[in-house]
Amino acid sequence: MSASIIDGKAAAQALRDRLAIEVSRIDAEHSWVPGLAVVLVGEDPASQVYVRNKGKQTAEAGMRSFEHKLPASTSERELLDLVESLNRDDAVNGILVQLPLPEHIDAQLVIETIDPAKDVDGFHPMNTGALSNGDPTALVPCTPLGCLMMLREQFPEGIAGLNAVVVGRSNIVGKPMAQLLIAESCTVTVAHSKTRDLPALCRTADILVAAVGRPEMVRGDWVKEGAVVIDVGINRVQLEGQEKARLVGDVAFAEAAERAKAITPVPGGVGPMTIACLLRNTVVAACRQHRVVCELG
Ligand SMILES: Nc1nc(=O)c2c([nH]1)NC[C@@H]1CN(c3ccc(C(=O)N[C@@H](CCC(=O)O)C(=O)O)cc3)C=[N+]21
Ligand SMILES: [Mg+2]
């Protein structure tokens, strides 16, 4: 089998096109547009790329974008004050505070200070709790949501009953991904650094999600013939004798593609869908705050 390559860029563009239509309908009928605030503390390079793409795409979808770039020396109190002022700002429907934050700031405290109704990352305990309860009103973390949307496209007959293995147990990806797959009636196993015989476990997966942040850790012979592979990793690797760093996933792409039915590439897979889902969550959150019906399905 030679895998089909899941085009995350195209899927993200299609979702953003639908969002733009919904935003213009809301504007025409209600005379407001959704607003997203992104807060970046310090100079993490990955976060800077993400913020740049996000601001551009927010505006392209007809939404308002508010960017707050603060120095790495910002105190925890200053950041909490900013979050509280964004909570009170009616033009701001979604708030995202870029992670990681500098060491001297308690990231969990910052997350818990965000109004859960504006928590478009879905990281607030109110939203993680709602997700684990199967509450459809939960704001769902963007990366797992994007992965699920791409997975659904690969299985017209549905994913209920399939074996899913999620490699990685982070609060940002692994755990919410597992919750979403449970809600879809998959049989879900979450693997991590202490898992015994990870290759054999992965070979049981009809759906294999790799979210560990280790370049090309998942090898081709870990992939079951005909599986769908979702690669969440975005690792910058510096090759000897080469000027520019190369982006690679958590999956050895060429090897895995020989056995998978379909696989996401890096770049151009999960990353673009993450941003599109952030915009989607902002539209959904804005509609709830204004108590109007959102026609995104
Ligand atoms: N509160 C918070 N929420 C986040 O969702 C969050 C965050 N903090 N901190 C940083 C990470 C990183 N992240 C990315 C999203 C999209 C791409 C993306 O679109 N990547 C392109 C490649 C971009 C490139 O060339 O570097 C791709 O995969 O095709 C990358 C990285 C979201 N993050
Ligand atoms: Mg996210």
TrEMBL record:
Keywords: Amino-acid biosynthesis, Histidine biosynthesis, Hydrolase, Methionine biosynthesis, Multifunctional enzyme, NADP, One-carbon metabolism, Oxidoreductase, Purine biosynthesis
GO biological process: L-histidine biosynthetic process; methionine biosynthetic process; purine nucleotide biosynthetic process; tetrahydrofolate interconversion
EC identifiers of the protein: 1.5.1.5, 3.5.4.9
GO cellular component: cytosol
Binding-site residues for NADP(+), renumbered to this chain: 168-170, 234
Tetrahydrofolate dehydrogenase/cyclohydrolase catalytic domain location: 6-121
Reactions this protein catalyses: (6R)-5,10-methenyltetrahydrofolate + H2O = (6R)-10-formyltetrahydrofolate + H(+); (6R)-5,10-methylene-5,6,7,8-tetrahydrofolate + NADP(+) = (6R)-5,10-methenyltetrahydrofolate + NADPH
Keyword Lipid biosynthesis: no
Pathway the protein takes part in: One-carbon metabolism; tetrahydrofolate interconversion
Domain of life of the source: Bacteria
CDD domains xref list: NAD_bind_m-THF_DH_Cyclohyd
A Pfam cross-reference name: THF_DHG_CYH_C
GO molecular-function terms, A-Z: methenyltetrahydrofolate cyclohydrolase activity; methylenetetrahydrofolate dehydrogenase (NADP+) activity
Segments forming domain Tetrahydrofolate dehydrogenase/cyclohydrolase NAD(P)-binding: 141-289
Homology family: Belongs to the tetrahydrofolate dehydrogenase/cyclohydrolase family.
Function: Catalyzes the oxidation of 5,10-methylenetetrahydrofolate to 5,10-methenyltetrahydrofolate and then the hydrolysis of 5,10-methenyltetrahydrofolate to 10-formyltetrahydrofolate.
Subunit composition and interactions: Homodimer.
Protein name from the UniProt record: Bifunctional protein FolD
Gene: folD
